[in-house]
Amino acid sequence: MAYGYACHMRHSRNCIGVIGVGVMGEALLAGLINSGSAPSAICIADKRAERLTELQNKYGVTPSTIENIATDCDVILLVVKPQDMGALIETISPTIPATTLLVTFAAGKRSAFIEERVKPGTPVIRVMPNTPSLVGKGMAAISGGTHATESDIDFVTNFLASSGEVIVLAEELQDAVTATSGSGPAYFFYFVEEMIKGAIALGLSEAAATKLTIQTITGAAAMLNESGKSPTTLRENVTSPKGTTAAALETFYQANTGEIISAALKAARDRSQELA
Fold first, then answer.
1. Full-model pTM
2. Among the four residues 43, 127, 205, 224, which has the most C-beta atoms within 10 Å?
3. Residue 247's domain spans which residues?
4. Does residue 192 have a pLDDT over 80?
């Protein structure tokens, strides 16, 4: 990818590089712009030239190469798969200044993995986002590495907050975050899929089952978010003794659904640890 472009605002946080602009990379790109970063000062790199052109036309950002981003940008978002992170860092580490802020979004990869491969003192921040950030309803958890400053953390928090909620926590909890909010949307979508299938089996059309399920789930989530009541209280409020809801919930209890959910989160947590 030889584009001949570069970011020329080296010592300003307005010079930001994004390496990997798939679905999540684009969401982060939009978040940067929404939080005040100038599109003209954002460089992007990806394996797909057509993707770079698409995002250049859509956002006004600058197509570049990972090599140019390494030398010209003082903040770099690393939005690549965990298995690709080692090769990427090996390629760019010789030319990254120790003042560059590196922000990693790769599941399971610890800050130390990057710190050990770049110049001593390089600040690194680890982030676990999730896909609802695409619609401004994301959940991101960030952890500062050994050399990350409060200012670094504030900067990352600010642009992530434009796409949802953000929490700062100790890095040893990031694998648990991955299992909870990182992978969590997929659990939710799976439940919705199965609820729709079950409604169709009861005789509803696919269109009716889908509308009923999605609006019910959306409304329940809004109640949970806005009522100030716990999920336990809200569940109890809709469950009459020996009623229809109680009959459905009893099926969940008999199937040990709670234990299944806990086991699923643990499996995701364990996999995140393996990816380190």
1. 0.87
2. 43
3. 184-275
4. yes
